Amino acid sequence: MSKAAKLLLAVAFLIGSALPAAAAGAEKLLIVHSALNLLTSPLWMAKEKGYFSKYGVDVETIYIPSGTLGMQSLLGGETKIIVADGSSAINARLRGAPVKIFLGMVNFYPNPFFSVPEIKTPADLKGKKIAVTRIGSSSHTATVMLLKKLGLDEKDYTIMQLGSTQNRLTALTKGLIQATTLSAPESVIARKAGMKVLISPSEVMKLGVTFQHQCGDVMESTLKNDRATVKAFAKGYLEGVRETYRSKEESMKVLSKYTRISDPQVLSATYDEAYQAIEKEGSPTETGIQVMLTDMAKTDAQARQARAADFMDSTIIGELAREGFIKALWAK
Q: With 5 labelled, which of 126, 142, 199, 332 sits at a CA distance of 20 to 30 A?
């Protein structure tokens, strides 16, 4: 049994023991997600506000601190849907897994690149330790793409796989690494701790590091055989997006509950920094996926022959748009 599967079984048992029975007729749906940050808030918001239940799904969420490990749970059948980085889905499909990105959640890389104060320019990172979640993750892809555009090859620095954003923040503030990307709220905490924003999100965008950062992934068989469940999840999630945009106060409450951060200043700054990066209508970005494939093609022969359209399935979002669901959602 895989590490991801063992973790899922253990947490699922605890959830089942601690929670009341699901509403009659609601389908239980376990969602694995790979980040504890504001960008994941629509998922939690939809659960807390009852939006998933509204559409007939009883959602529980489990955090696994890596999209790569989360993908193992999807491929192993332990979960039907994962919320993770685009890199994990693309790498899995390049290796033959029948995975599709069906929901675009964050369609560009929004995270600043931090360093210890002693680093003055990106060139100073030669010979230094730079942390990512895992090899093949979104943070790894973004870091390699970004530094390559700034003149640094992978041989110029050492990649450290440290897992969660929280782990990377701790390593940075203790001087165990010299740089990493951080999402809010850890980015806010890093600034307060005196860490340096070496490359801002706007600079990252100017350098062309835009891709499918966070998304909903599903197996092709689930899209075919359990389409109603996937559609119900999408509807609930999108209502969570709307509420995240419209209520800073509720977003801060949800973020505090799931991240266990209680500092109101950190929560407020986190919301202000990140909420507009969340995709409003749920469309995946074919252009962003192609950017990732083009970069991967430099070292991966399979990526050279791949077409971005083959990695995504926008039919669920297309249906919701044609039915007027998305337009009505934002008109309320």
A: 142
Question: Would you tell me how many other CB atoms lie within 10 Å of the CB of residue 272?
Answer: 13
- What are the tokens at 12? 């699922």
Question: Which is nearest to 102 in space by CA: 307, 316, 309?
Answer: 316
113-206: in CATH 2.30.130.10: no
Residue type at 30 in one-letter notation: L
Tracing tokens 């100017």 back to the chain, one arrives at: 206
CA–CA dist 286, 290 (Å, integer): 6
User: Per-domain residue ranges for the chain?
Assistant: 3-108+211-331, 113-206
Instruction: List strands edge to edge, sheet with 158-161.
Output: 158-161, 129-132, 179-181, 113-115, 196-199
Domain 3-108+211-331 and domain 113-206, same fold? Reply is yes
The pTM for the full model equals 0.82
Look at the domain 3-108+211-331 and name its fold: D-Maltodextrin-Binding Protein; domain 2 (3.40.190)
